[in-house]
Design brief:
heterodimer; A: elongated; B: alpha+beta; 2 domains; 7 strands
């Protein structure tokens, strides 16, 4: 949303922190700011709901194996995405 | 100690998904700070609005933080009936009207005539008055944009967003202290509207 207010999280930062939020691994101050953002940002609130559902759904999937090549490619793509 | 707690419809914790029982004590998940029962003082309410507002009885030591309090045990002591769908929508309108008021101040300071905007009584009229303004730049343009967005969100029923925008607008106009000052205005509005 905006950087007018110091110390508030932007939507981009929310996306980067969502895994830690869902794993309850955020420091308390960051968790509080994350939750406050969800109150006023409907887009991020929907995103977190979707991520929660995705985690729930994928936890029931069987591991059918992934080649080392494919795993490397995925990790490279993910690292590039995070830059 | 009696405090307040916002929950999603059906007594559901908005971040945990936990469905609160009525009047039964609930213990913290662990002794770790942050894992306790979170609640609001009246001044904290605007930060956490949701569909249902409950009085919550807290037990044991209570940690006080900037925008919330936390205890080891808590139980719902009764719903605040005056906070309903209508109050939530009105809170959003309040945010939009405040964003308009702040825009009027900024426009006046910049020498821009905005009588229609100042007089407008509905969010649709405010939006129409904003559209009729001359081309703006700098802070007046920013303030008009906040007012426009707050009206849109208020009309959509996104009260949390509309009131947040009002607080951001106050920051734009008055500096860093503006945000907390606007949240204080909003907490007084909730307290008066709900008879807290």
């Amino acid at each position: 949303m905006t950087r007018r207010v110091p110390h508030e999280l932007t939507c981009t930062e929310m996306v980067r922190l969502v895994t830690e939020f869902l794993e309850d691994a955020l420091p308390l101050e960051d968790r509080t700011r994350f939750e406050q953002h969800l109150v006023y940002c409907k887009g991020c609130a929907a995103y977190v709901r979707q991520m929660r559902k995705t985690v729930e759904a994928s936890s029931g999937l069987e591991d059918t194996g992934l080649s080392a090549e494919a795993e490397d490619e995925l990790l490279r793509a993910f690292k590039g995405f995070c830059k | 100690m009696i405090a307040y707690k916002f929950l999603a419809a059906g007594r559901v914790g908005p971040f945990t998904g936990y469905t609160w029982p009525e009047r039964e004590w609930v213990d913290a998940l662990s002794a770790r700070e942050g894992a306790g029962i979170h609640a609001c003082r009246i001044e904290d309410l605007p930060w956490w609005i949701d569909h249902e507002l409950w009085r919550v009885e807290l037990s044991g030591p209570v940690l006080e933080r900037e925008t919330q309090i936390e205890a080891r045990r808590g139980r719902l002591a009764g719903r605040v009936a005056t906070w309903d769908a209508r109050a939530l929508a009105e809170f959003g309108v309040h945010g939009a009207l405040r964003a308009r008021d702040l825009a009027v101040l900024a426009l006046g300071d910049a020498g821009v005539r905005c009588d229609d905007l100042a007089r407008a009584r509905t969010l649709l009229d405010i939006r129409a008055a904003l559209e009729a303004l001359p081309a703006l730049s700098g802070v007046p343009a920013e303030m008009a944009a906040y007012a426009r967005e707050a009206c849109t969100r208020g009309l959509d029923g996104a009260a949390g967003t509309a009131t947040y925008i009002a607080a951001v607008a106050a920051t734009a106009l008055r500096g860093p202290s503006g945000f907390a000052a606007e949240r204080a205005v909003q907490s007084r509005w909730i307290a008066e509207r709900c008879g807290l």
